């Protein structure tokens, strides 16, 4: 700005898609709350309503916050890389904590009601997704946030980190869709086929989950919307490579 250069701008269309994703995400949360509040009695911890914390936490943590964590590198395109990386890790960490609360809620609810655990396809997919998500977060912090990993190791792991990041987001949405279907079949199996309002609302939630995933996925896969490296980041990367591998910048 001091040399009169215009401030950097986002690529055409990126801001609109990010705004749509956030609108869909907030609508997701509102629809989940409306379903649980209107038809399932609301949410309370040490009560028969404890189970309802599970779908709310999973939609909030494993879908909305995870999606926003993935969008961090598209939204904060011109901020310091270290700050962006830290925000990315913090959002994923918060998503993990909220998801863990949701998992505890369902296990405690099952125990109090004498319901067996981990027998359904939803529970298998959901638990696998959570464990892999935790592993992905730990590896990401180890390779990219904390010092120690060499430049070559970071470079080798980065494609896997990106691939599994998107894959786990897809698996999270898939697990939520399985959970919605399972919950409807348990709660309203006799009336679900008659297009009752609860079934329509829950189906709408499923459609919103898919829409949110598609918009986030589109933003992530647009090559021209990827965060460009800043000049100082390129210099720091070269210095880091020199320090960790003993290569000269000129080499």
TrEMBL record:
Subcellular location(s) of the protein: Cytoplasmic vesicle, Secretory vesicle, Chromaffin granule membrane
Catalytic activity: monodehydro-L-ascorbate radical(out) + L-ascorbate(in) = monodehydro-L-ascorbate radical(in) + L-ascorbate(out)
Domain of life: Eukaryota
PROSITE patterns: CYTOCHROME_B561 (PS50939)
Gene Ontology terms for molecular function: metal ion binding; oxidoreductase activity
Positions of the Cytochrome b561 domain: 20-221
Heme as UniProt keyword: yes
Pfam families attached to this UniProt entry: Cytochrom_B561
Names of required cofactors: heme b
SMART domains per the UniProt record, alphabetical: B561
InterPro entries according to UniProt: CYB561/CYBRD1-like, Cyt_b561/ferric_Rdtase_TM
Tagged with keyword Electron transport: yes
Topology within the bilayer: Multi-pass membrane protein
Reported function: Transmembrane reductase that uses ascorbate as an electron donor in the cytoplasm and transfers electrons across membranes to reduce monodehydro-L-ascorbate radical in the lumen of secretory vesicles. It is therefore involved the regeneration and homeostasis within secretory vesicles of ascorbate which in turn provides reducing equivalents needed to support the activity of intravesicular enzymes.
Protein's name in the database: Transmembrane ascorbate-dependent reductase CYB561
Source organism of this protein record: Ploceus nigricollis
Native organism taxonomy: Eukaryota, Metazoa, Chordata, Craniata, Vertebrata
Gene: Cyb561
